[in-house]
Amino acid sequence: MTVAEILRSRKSTGFSIEVLPPVKGGSIGKIYANIDSLHQYNPLFINITTHHSEPVYVPDASGLLRKQFVRKRPGTVAVAAALQHRYNIPTVPHIICTGFTRSETEYVLIDLNFLGIHDLFVLRGDIDKECLVPAEECHRHATELIAQINDINNGRFLDGTLNEPLDARFSFGVAGYPEKHEEAPNIDTDIMYLKQKVDAGAEYVITQLFFDNQKYYSFVDKCRAAGINVPIIPGLKPMSKKRQLNVLPKTFNCELPQDLVDAMNKCADDKAAKQVGIEWLTMQCNDLKAHGVPDLHFYTFMATDSVCEVLKRVF
């Protein structure tokens, strides 16, 4: 079953997780260890992020710094295949516009089809002015990337080759932003673009992380009013360090509730802050479950222990 089919068949709230590929040269063993601790609670699916090349400066023999482009976390497709084989649950690689040519994307989709991976999560990706791939060779927006996926589903390729439609079509979700995307002029415009992606074939939405459930409920209401009727999955992350009070709002364009800020500020150290993060996320999850959300999606980066504790309490 695809993720969309699983979500449509659910009668109760489940959960899913998102992981990072290992740093270049790293072992997949750490990912296995993290997922093993969560697997006992039966995740519905696993998302794997994708990272494009980025510039780094390396000294040459003369001591001068030379710019090189490096993918620090390659291996999304291989990680997706390895996890699906190991855990026998759907794995969902992120497919992004930024940093990948249309041809590279086509070959990735062909490989995924051969591997039997037909769930995708489609994103524009962060804009990087120093990206190795010229902007004109990339898709500019997620809607353009969706059009390419739909073409491949229907047997159409970039060189004009026409084949039979895929036996197992790619199914995909897209991102939503309860507090609007940082580049959007307002939430209504952001939802208008989200509807375009859903109208083009996206079967579910996973939101950016948030810490105030009312932001999510308001976002869902606005989406429904705009005619977006696919499942909208809340994206969640526990706070685990005091410094995240300043980092998370800037990184994810989210607002922190004053009660959470006050509780974190009272913490003497990160051990206490981690406990506050667990308590807050548990409260969020119980409230979201009570409202009948189809799935709770956890961004587990550097927080697997906290997520595991929350799952123990909520499920």
Supply the key terms.
single chain, 315 residues, 11 helices
Q: Topology of this protein?
A:
Layout: H1 3-9, E1 14-19, H2 29-39, E2 46-48, E3 54-59, E4 65-70, H3 76-87, E5 91-96, H4 102-115, E6 119-123, H5 142-153, E7 171-176, H6 187-199, E8 204-209, H7 213-225, E9 232-236, H8 244-252, H9 258-265, H10 270-290, E10 295-299, H11 304-314
Parallel strand pairs: 1-2, 1-10, 2-5, 5-6, 6-7, 7-8, 8-9, 9-10
Antiparallel strand pairs: 3-4
Structure commentary:
The protein has about 325 residues and is α/β, with parallel strands linked by helices. The chain has one domain: TIM Barrel. It is built from 11 helices and 10 strands. It has helices at about 5-10, 30-40, 75-85, 100-115, 140-155, 185-200, 215-225, 245-250, 260-265, 270-290, 305-315, and strands spanning about 15-20, 45-50, 55-60, 65-70, 90-95, 120-125, 170-175, 205-210, 230-235, 295-300. The chain has an 8-stranded parallel β-barrel with strand order 1-2-5-6-7-8-9-10, surrounded by 5 helices. The chain has a two-stranded antiparallel ribbon with strand order 3-4. Strand 3 (about 55-60) and strand 4 form a beta hairpin. It starts with a helix and ends with a helix.
Rg, alpha carbons: 20 Å
Please write the string of helix (H) and strand (E) elements.
Answer: HEHEEEHEHEHEHEHEHHHEH
Low-confidence stretches: none
Portion in beta strands: 15-25%
- Give the N-to-C terminal Cα separation: 23 Å
Alpha plus pi helix count? 11
Shape summary: globular
Q: What is the class in the CATH system?
A: Alpha Beta
CATH topology: TIM Barrel
How many strands appear in the DSSP assignment? 10
